[in-house]
Design brief:
Blueprint: E1 4-10, E2 20-26, E3 29-36, H1 41-92, E4 96-100, H2 108-112, E5 115-124, E6 129-134, E7 143-144, E8 150-157, E9 164-165, E10 172-175, E11 183-189, E12 194-199, E13 206-210, H3 213-219
Antiparallel strand pairs: 1-2, 2-3, 4-5, 4-10, 5-6, 5-7, 8-9, 8-11, 11-12, 12-13
């Protein structure tokens, strides 16, 4: 049976690091040589700094993208709610309303959790009065915005009146059984990212635009465009 002796020899290389030579010898002579090389502290520090810079840049991009997605999701949820309200108003021959939470409400909890819901007027046989009922079913539930998302601008035009702003008491958009609705321009954002939703009075259909309501009004003639396009 052959035996092997392991000899470790350390010597300094010309590049500044210390390669490790391992000689495995047997009775018959040298059987192999393995070189293991490493990095200097300076080289490792450079790598760490580069990784930290990439991580900081990537983290900033991720946070910005996440906030923009929250605003976009809120706007899309609003458009879907408008479409659902229109369909249900026609199907049930009963007005459906999108009710907005007040951004300037005195209630801090309500102001901190801006959102919206669908409501309908139902007759209560016990009280013999008409009451507003919040719609909660398989297809829709009240929406609360995430993060810093809120209604930045609300312009609703009641029938036969001038445009109403977010300072008015009425913050409801009515969808009629005929398929029409109150004309509305809703801006949703977080102070940096903005989306605008427009609802046509003639068709009751909604569409979404990227940007503020002012910018959208300059680029698109809201109220005369076809709002039946898919998102």
């Amino acid at each position: 049976m052959k035996t092997q002796n392991l000899k470790v020899k350390v010597k300094t290389g010309r590049w500044g690091f210390t390669p490790l030579e391992i000689f495995a010898k047997s009775k018959t002579g040298l059987s192999g040589t393995l070189f293991l090389t490493g990095f200097t502290i300076a080289e490792m520090l450079v790598v760490v700094v580069i990784i930290a810079l990439i991580a900081s840049v990537g983290g900033g991009i991720y946070v910005g993208t996440y906030k923009r997605m929250l605003v976009e999701k809120a706007a899309r949820d609003f458009v879907l709610a408008a479409k659902y309200a229109r369909i249900m108003a026609i199907e049930r021959q009963k007005p459906y309303k999108i009710k907005l939470s007040a951004a300037d409400s005195a209630d801090a909890a309500e102001a901190a959790n801006n959102g919206f819901g669908l409501v309908i007027d139902e007759f209560n046989q016990e009280t013999e009065q008409t009451e507003q009922v919040i719609v909660r079913d398989l297809y829709f539930k009240p929406v609360e915005f995430g993060g810093d998302v809120k209604f930045e601008g609300v312009q609703i035009t009641p029938a036969g009146r001038e445009a109403a702003t977010e300072t008015d008491e009425t913050r409801e958009i009515v969808f009629s059984p005929s398929g029409t609705a109150q004309s509305a321009v809703i801006q949703i954002g977080d102070g940096k990212n903005h989306y605008t939703v427009s609802i046509s009075a003639a068709t009751g259909r909604a569409t979404m635009y990227f940007g503020t309501a002012e910018k959208v009004k300059e680029e698109v003639k809201i109220g005369t465009i076809d709002l039946d396009q898919e998102l």
